[in-house]
Specification:
Elements lengths: L7 H10 L25 E11 L10 H18 L3 E12 L4 H17 L4 E9 L4 E11 L14 E5 L4 H9 L9 H7 L8 H7 L2 E4 L4 H12 L2 E5 L7 H8 L4 H10 L6 E5 L9 E8 L4 E5 L2 E3 L14
Parallel strand pairs: 2-3, 7-10
Antiparallel strand pairs: 1-4, 2-4, 5-8, 5-9, 6-8, 7-9, 10-11
Helix pairs in contact: 2-3, 4-5
């Protein structure tokens, strides 16, 4: 039985992570090999998992507390798109040997800040060391009324395509972090580093959406996933793309508006929600209609009447062909 004064891995887990359980009974103080999630009559348990790898999903040398907070938020973004209420999380983290005790403390402090902010208790997990880059994965659990999880597969011809918030701040935020674009007020970098999971949209999504996904890989790619899973085609008009003031200012300075809008619509890391809304349902507050679904296959992107080629539509992990 380990305690906070024990040396080594188990003592560090007790000191850094046991307080993050929030007293959840099923976590057993992180002193067991498993946790228990009690059932909730009338609800389904939704499970999602996302990982962050330094140098891939976050810049090399990113502050450990910021990585932890982004890890929580990208997972909660998936729950938000499913219309789920967060209930708990499991953490797996691989520390590089260069990570010091202070680095691990900073990660735990960032994790604590957002787990508390989103009322998400830590139920368990694992810590290891790695010769590779820093890697962390979170498994997030959420409740949704029975049979009411909003899937990707649910859009029908005639449904409208809608997206929440603003699009393009994520890709511009990464460019701002790299000092490739101006970001005088820090808005863009903050949107990239600390995306806002749209848990506030759950009620509207449950009431109005027939299909939904979060915008992580790029708006065009993630909207295309809805169409592919639903077996329908879709049409996106980038003239309707909702932009923040910062993104609009950047766009005005670009010599090729169409190419610039494609960059914003395919760059990813926005963590907004893209969804299908049947014609007999209202558009939920916070959403903008940007296109529609129709019979057929594929995704057409245009700027008004001008067809555009979005390429792959967003981020894809390159895989070895060996």
């Amino acid at each position: 039985m380990s305690g906070p004064d024990d040396p080594g891995e188990f003592g560090e887990i007790a000191r850094l992570f046991r307080p993050l359980t929030g007293g959840a009974a099923g976590a057993f103080g992180l002193q067991d090999d498993a946790a228990v999630v009690p059932g909730r009559p009338g609800f389904d348990l939704v499970v999602t998992k996302d990982a962050l790898v330094e140098g891939v999903h976050v810049p090399l040398g990113e502050a450990p507390d910021l990585i932890a907070r982004k890890l929580v938020r990208v997972n909660l973004s998936d729950l938000a798109a499913k219309g789920a209420e967060p209930v708990g999380a499991f953490l797996a983290v691989a520390w590089p040997k260069a990570y010091t005790a202070r680095d691990r403390e900073r990660f735990a402090q960032g994790l604590a800040a957002d787990l508390e902010a989103f009322a998400l208790p830590l139920l368990g997990g694992d810590t290891v060391t790695t010769p590779g880059p820093f890697t962390a994965s979170l498994t997030a659990l959420g409740w949704v009324p029975e049979g009411r999880m909003i899937r990707r597969a649910g859009a029908s011809p005639g449904d409208r395509l809608a997206v929440s918030g603003t699009i393009g701040d994520g890709v511009l935020g990464l460019a701002a972090v790299r000092r490739e674009v101006d970001d005088p007020d820090g808005h863009l970098a903050a949107r990239y580093r600390l995306p806002r999971p749209r848990l506030d949209l759950r009620a509207g999504l449950r009431a109005c959406a027939s299909a939904a996904a979060d915008v992580s890989d790029g708006l065009v790619a993630d909207a295309g996933h809805l169409g592919a899973a639903s077996g329908v085609a879709l049409d996106i008009d980038l003239a309707r793309l909702p932009l923040s003031k910062s993104a609009a200012t950047w766009l005005e300075a670009q010599p090729d508006a169409a190419a610039a809008l494609l960059r914003l619509a395919t760059g990813g890391d926005d963590y907004e929600v893209v969804c299908a809304i049947p014609p007999d349902r209202p558009t939920p507050a916070g959403f903008t209609i940007i296109g529609d679904f129709r019979a057929g296959q594929g995704c057409k992107v245009r700027l008004g009447d001008r067809p555009l080629d979005p390429g792959p539509g967003g981020w894809r992990h390159p895989l070895s062909t060996d």
